[in-house]
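Summary for the steering committee. One of the milestones for this cycle was to obtain a three-dimensional model of the protein with molybdenum atom bound, which we needed before selecting residues for the alanine scan. The sequence and ligand used are listed below.
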Amino acid sequence: MTANDIPRAARQTRVTTSHWGAFEVTTEGDRITGTAPFTGDPEPSDIPQAVPAAVHHSSRVARPSIRRGWLERRDRSSRGHDEFVELPWDEALDIAAAEIDRIRKTHGNEAIFGGSYGWSSAGRFHHAQSQVHRFLNSIGGYVASFGSYSTGCAQAIMPHVFGVPFLRYLYNSQDSWQTIAENTDTLVMFGGINRKNAQVSMGGITRHDTQSWFERFHDKGMRCVNIGPQRRDAPEGCEWLPVRPGSDAALMLALAFVLEQEGLTDHAFLARYSVGFERFRPYLMGESDGLPKTPEWASPICGADPETIRALARRMASTRTLITVAWSLQRAEHGEQPYWMSAVLAAMLGQIGLPGGGVGYGYGAIGGIGKSMKSLRGVTLDQGQNPVGTFIPVARIADMLENPGVPYDFNGRRAPYPDIRLVYWAGGNPFHHHQDLNHLHEAWKCPETVIVNEPWWTATAKRADIVFPATTSYEREDIGRTDLDEYLFNMPALIPPVGEARDDYDIFAGLAERMDAGARFTEGRSSEEWLRHLYEGYRASGAEAGIEVPEFDDLRARNWVKLPIVQEPPLPSFLARFRADPEGHALNTPSGRIEVFSETVDSFGYADCPGHPVWLPPTEWLGTASAQTPLHLVSPQPGDKLHSQLEAALADQPDARPERVLMHPEDARPRGIASGDLVMLRNARGAVRARAVVSDDIRLGVVALPTGAWYGDASENIDPHGNPNVLTRDKGTSSLGQGCSAHTTLVEVAPLG
Ligand SMILES: Nc1nc2c(c(=O)[nH]1)N[C@H]1C(S)=C(S)[C@@H](COP(=O)(O)OP(=O)(O)OC[C@H]3O[C@@H](n4cnc5c(=O)[nH]c(N)nc54)[C@H](O)[C@@H]3O)O[C@H]1N2
Ligand SMILES: Nc1nc2c(c(=O)[nH]1)N[C@H]1C(S)=C(S)[C@@H](COP(=O)(O)OP(=O)(O)OC[C@H]3O[C@@H](n4cnc5c(=O)[nH]c(N)nc54)[C@H](O)[C@@H]3O)O[C@H]1N2
Ligand SMILES: [Mo]
């Protein structure tokens, strides 16, 4: 008997995995009744505690639902304000398939947007994005999206600098925690290294251990400096240099200036391993623009004292220094600049490729960065070929919907936005994640039809025309594994589907069948046959690598196994190989070296992203603060959950909503605000309610409101939940990256009586 065959009435406990790691789930009959930490996890996350209440929450979508205004009159303007009609599955699938067919036959597949960004759930087969993309490919293709909200800007700029796809740099090419612990003397963390963020990783992270690494760093006397607006962005025991958001490029330039002025630049390194320093130097020293980038120049911009900047630069030059950069820095206007400049600063220090030296990106942003693992071929559903070549940078969704045919720039290419008539979203929540939501609410009225697969009535589901209820990962069997984790899971179907929910696979199979693409989509396999098929491919790649992976039924019986794939000792980074042999391991840049100046970027002719890193003041930052909007809003990831997931249950907890906003005592006092008070954050784009937490853990002039709350209704003058994206700015980072620039936002905060 396998775990899946045990009679359901009994109380039982099994392990599953999720983006926030493995945990035990207790079920009684058809209900999830409790969760507990996984025994192998030294620092388990609290996030799963909300799972039982969320899975059985009244906000689950019970049955296929179609919006009345769309059903009766194809009305678009009432999207988000309308009621829904529940229909039987067959009828709803017939209507959706006929509509998709109509759009593709009338306007072509170029009129279907299937970018469908979002994290959905862990589990390799029932991965909503893979499923929606495979389905749309099976019926002729769709307009896709490039990059992520996480790192979209870095994904565009960093290949010009280091010549590798940014995600490859992140995943298997950086120094491991162990290498850092053994070699680094000074850890300079722009945006910190955040334990709360390392709780999660795409597809799962089983052993949470960031805290224990920092304990080792502190024990050996490593100096760890957190540079950014919030003290708590780094663990206890780190120094804090509070700086203004959006100013990091200026601070990095000043550090570089000190190196150059004091003869601390490693010119031998620059000459052998980089190109273009001579084109950058005149700007750094002020010869080209009359503005030497001295600490005195940077100090009023970033808020750090000139002597502190000088002392830090000297320390960085005289000790083994690793610069780390949080992803948040590039989620801002001109986010390309601190990213590129961090690489130039590290190159000037000459430590790139030395163990524990150079520059790293996203340590702590997600758990698993900094692990050194043997990589096996994944358990990955083939998405098929997309005959439509059109894509947009992921965060340009509202611009695309509103501006069909209008050309825009992206990374050296100029192309018109496609004319989208149908949007299909599965596994993401744009009405949580996108910027300037009141504006997105308007742009969302442009397409003729919006179809969403969702387990819950999120703000996005409420703004769809057709909503298909999707199962959660607790209601279907799957395989859990990722490149950054040594654990492999059978994720059992713990309970039957809630309401009439169906797996995304079955929803798409039903649509594909109605559109004569059934065989292409399913290849004749049931879900279980797919699981076995994908798993066999994985086992075979294990065997090739000499790693024994249990048989499918054996894994089912065991629930999880730990694979011997951790690299010990850790592998050297790709930059270490480049340093050892710069010709044999030349970088994939035009010069084969690190590009301090990029002819390619320069040739694009973008004023907002020239050929070498520069300081460009953002449109909204403390340097442009006004009486109406005097405070800088940062909107980090929430510590108590993953994005907007499980929000249904979390929002029910006493005093949980509105979301909490952190502000400095000297910003709170003159406004008559005390901890616990209800406040309103507002700017020209909107207003949200929040609850104040007053603390000197945040820099004066900055407020922090995490993401993750659901979004209310654009017709309400003030969003009741506290979603910061009501306030954030929806502009690309630059013509080059076109990433999301959420952190470039000014607001005012006022008490709410
Ligand atoms: N202001 C501001 N905004 C930001 C950010 C920021 O820093 N500041 N960060 C950005 C970043 S980096 C990200 S990654 C995004 C995150 O934004 P999203 O990834 O969109 O957020 P999630 O809440 O994870 O959305 C996943 C959705 O999928 C649904 N789901 C879960 N499992 C399934 C399934 O099996 N099938 C289907 N059909 N649906 C499922 C969930 O219920 C949820 O609604 O937010 C971005 N927005
Ligand atoms: N618990 C939890 N963990 C998560 C997620 C989640 O939803 N919940 N989401 C995951 C995802 S999708 C992603 S992409 C990563 C994101 O990882 P990051 O982008 O690294 O994380 P954030 O929390 O957005 O930002 C980290 C900190 O950067 C600081 N910051 C903001 N602007 C600036 C600036 O201009 N300069 C400097 N120096 N600092 C600045 C803020 O104080 C903020 O707290 O997190 C992942 N981890
Ligand atoms: Mo992200």
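Key point for the committee: The pocket of molybdenum atom (ligand 3) is lined by residues 148-150 (CB under 6 Å).
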